[in-house]
């Protein structure tokens, strides 16, 4: 028996999660996965229920679970509360407390949705990049960080960007391991011409590379990487980078596909226990309308089956089912184009269940 | 008499600067600008000549000058030397020592070059963004920064990202001032949901906004900004952001145009004294071949006339001359397309001189 903790979160979170759960339940039966689902709150929903964005009991449940499925967190309702207990804090805390340092963010262009990209077809056709982002270190969690008033009465604030050898080594390994089973090309992104932490990053990545002679390693400055993603994104296979650069570059890369509503993500610990969530946010503007795209969350279920449970057949089947509903011309509003059939969140979920 | 210090730099720097100087000399005569030019080295060229990427005497000359025109710095020749005296260090030092905190990086799509963009024409047609980047603070210069060995034998390194109220205030003002004379829209980019420095950034920008009721201010997280630049870049007029985010976003934005060989930049101090340089790098791979595009450097001359000397007529005339040579179908290799006339660096410079 495997325990899956489901955290629907805020905004469109509950709607898209309902569809993902339908798919997960079917896969559970069909492939005898022996999963048991339990539900709890994270983010704004947790603030409303527990007064904090991640309650201790939720964290305990997350620790005990074998995998976590997350919708999305945040929304205007909680924008004006104390920054220390905003919805995002719950997300950052669960990542950090569970040691989910390995964030996998694929930027994959579905051929059926090629025209949704703002880039020219020839630039993005067949795009398939995997961004490996360090998720529990760097400037997101570095201490000290402070906001203070100087003697002259002026305010100032600072953050710290630290990386240790072991933090860099373990994420570099994830990058190389992923590259090894994909296109065998790893691009490590840093700002080694300016940052001390990046100089160490580059040195350690070079050391790890010795164990992966079959993977072609390159280094790129982050500003150039942001540029190359726009100019010629297909030059990349796997990119590995730090927490902040990964935040920026993975969002940029996902938008190259034009359909961020399709992209799942995984955040893994050292034992491949993971939290799985769509790359998109909680989209409060369309919450409750039944029009959100559930496919990224459904594909997050597939990633969970693949990475945390090694259930390759079930994972493949879900991906194929998603591809099939796209072939059938079904589209939620965010990926709809002339001539296609516009459907709502639950109709899309049902179609995937049907295809599966 | 105004003193202009010319620093051709490395790689294609000397070639493109030769053309910019032709144009500057002509403008000098034609508009009786009373400029006196002197020349020195920065970056790799300075390492070869002085042993350091920015010699004290060069810095003194830069201080004494009324404006500085820079080519580009860096190249593989100096890649293996001590990081503390690499070519880029000269660039960072001159920015910091001269207090050039206000970096203006336009991302402008020339209608004649619309097809060079990797984005669809309807997404980028008419694109005209100005990125205002803080250039002398933040994580580029923050102390402490260190690389060390921990007691357990592990290496670690860290950088510090500090911002003071006054640093934020003065760059925010540049952003608002620019927005006021352009589309009256300013988007401030930060990561206030994670960073202490960004929270102060956002608070101070809000304060400065009170003096600019005619400018519409918005805030955006840096990850979303990286995404929106790909999705719908024309939503932006002026963007203001910190040193590191500005490095990344300005390169991303410039690449949206597809012709980074066309984009100039300005780095200004509190009195609008400035250093002007192309956005592109030193392109060592094509150095010495006479094929580099000199237009970004020529347009940097125009920016210099506009921002440091208020010579609007001369600045406009240079921009018009550049547009004219594009209309004539002249193109260097980087912006060439079928049916256009391919020309080299000096032929392009001559054409601009002719048009002027
Ligand atoms: C919500 C925010 C704190 C988070 C991050 O910056 O990591 C988000 O942007 C993400 O990428 O998952
Ligand atoms: C060369 C490098 C240090 C520099 C920077 O990061 O500022 C460059 O990328 C730039 O944007 O001018």
UniProtKB/TrEMBL annotation, chains A, B:
It is found in: Cytoplasm. Keywords: Amino-acid biosynthesis, Branched-chain amino acid biosynthesis, Cytoplasm, Leucine biosynthesis, Magnesium, Manganese, Metal-binding, NAD, Oxidoreductase. InterPro entries: IsoCit/isopropylmalate_DH_CS, IsoPropMal-DH-like_dom, Isopropylmalate_DH. One of its GO terms (molecular function) is 3-isopropylmalate dehydrogenase activity. Its cofactor is Mg(2+); Mn(2+). It comes from the Bacteria. Catalyzes the oxidation of 3-carboxy-2-hydroxy-4-methylpentanoate (3-isopropylmalate) to 3-carboxy-4-methyl-2-oxopentanoate. The product decarboxylates to 4-methyl-2 oxopentanoate. This is 3-isopropylmalate dehydrogenase. It comes from Ectopseudomonas khazarica. The gene is leuB.
């Amino acid at each position: 028996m495997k325990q899956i903790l489901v955290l629907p979160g805020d905004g469109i979170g509950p709607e898209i999660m309902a569809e993902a759960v339908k798919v997960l339940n079917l896969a559970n039966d069909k492939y005898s996965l022996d999963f048991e689902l339990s539900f709890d709150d994270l983010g704004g929903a947790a603030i409303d229920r527990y007064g904090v964005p991640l309650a201790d009991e939720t964290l305990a449940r997350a620790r005990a679970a074998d995998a976590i499925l997350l919708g999305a967190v945040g929304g205007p309702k909680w924008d004006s509360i104390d920054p220390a207990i905003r919805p995002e804090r719950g997300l950052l805390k669960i990542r950090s407390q569970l040691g989910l340092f390995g964030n996998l963010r694929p930027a994959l262009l579905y051929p059926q949705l090629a025209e949704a990209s703002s880039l020219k077809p020839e630039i993005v056709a067949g795009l398939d990049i995997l961004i490996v982002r360090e998720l529990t270190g760097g400037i997101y969690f570095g201490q000290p960080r402070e906001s203070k008033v100087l003697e002259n009465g002026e305010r100032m604030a600072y953050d710290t960007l630290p990386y240790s050898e072991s933090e860099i080594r373990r994420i570099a390994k994830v990058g190389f391991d992923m590259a090894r089973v994909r296109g065998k090309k790893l691009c490590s992104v840093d700002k080694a011409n300016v940052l001390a932490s990046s100089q160490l990053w580059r040195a350690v990545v070079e050391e790890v590379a010795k164990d992966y002679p079959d993977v072609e390693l390159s280094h790129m400055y982050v500003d150039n990487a942001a540029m190359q993603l726009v100019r010629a994104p297909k030059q990349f296979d796997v990119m590995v980078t730090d927490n902040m650069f990964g935040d920026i570059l993975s969002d940029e890369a996902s938008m190259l596909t034009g359909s961020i509503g399709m992209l799942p993500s995984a955040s893994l610990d050292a034992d491949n226990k993971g939290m799985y969530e769509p790359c998109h946010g909680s989209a409060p503007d369309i919450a409750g309308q039944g029009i959100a795209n559930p496919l990224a969350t459904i594909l997050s279920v597939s990633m969970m089956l693949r990475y945390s449970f090694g259930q390759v057949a079930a994972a493949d089947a879900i991906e194929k089912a998603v591809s099939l509903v796209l072939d059938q011309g079904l589209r939620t509003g965010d990926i709809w184009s002339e001539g296609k059939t516009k459907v709502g969140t639950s109709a899309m979920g049902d179609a995937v269940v049907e295809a599966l």
